[in-house]
Q: What sequence folds into this?
């Protein structure tokens, strides 16, 4: 007997993280589904994306200078991460940060502005408003959802 995974559109919900004035995009997977996060960088300055559970537990850290001067806390550079399967609804927050230069302990991390278009979250690290310095596309494993702001 074959079972089919019915693809339900993922909705981005906006909320302020506790202790922060920033609202980060989040996406939820229904029970039994997995989300695939594809992260791509197009930036000279150091940029990072952190995927964490809506409650705050960090699951994956991406950095465009991974292996080239970024700290040891990063898991990888550009690439893909698939969420674990769960018997409960799982929500994930996508956080963007940048430094105004190359990796340096002297430079502070600042929150990156973001824009959601369909299933892609684009982050901005400067003032050109192209929102392509970091791009995170999100889809269900095996199908493609639409993410709405």
A:
């Amino acid at each position: 007997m074959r079972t089919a995974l019915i693809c339900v559109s993922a909705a981005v919900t906006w909320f302020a993280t506790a202790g922060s004035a920033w609202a980060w995009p989040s996406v939820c997977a229904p029970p039994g589904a997995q989300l695939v996060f594809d992260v791509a960088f197009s930036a000279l300055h150091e940029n990072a994306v952190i995927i964490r559970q809506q409650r705050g537990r960090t699951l994956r850290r991406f950095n465009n200078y991974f292996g080239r001067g970024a700290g040891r806390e990063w898991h990888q550079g550009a690439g893909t991460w698939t969420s674990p399967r769960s018997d409960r609804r799982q929500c994930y927050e996508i956080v963007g940060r940048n430094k105004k230069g190359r990796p340096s302990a002297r430079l502070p991390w600042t929150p990156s502005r973001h824009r959601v278009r369909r299933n892609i979250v684009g982050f901005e690290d400067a003032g050109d408003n192209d929102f392509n310095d970091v791009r995170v596309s999100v889809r269900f494993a095996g199908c493609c959802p639409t993410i709405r702001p």
Observations:
- The chain has one domain: 23-140.
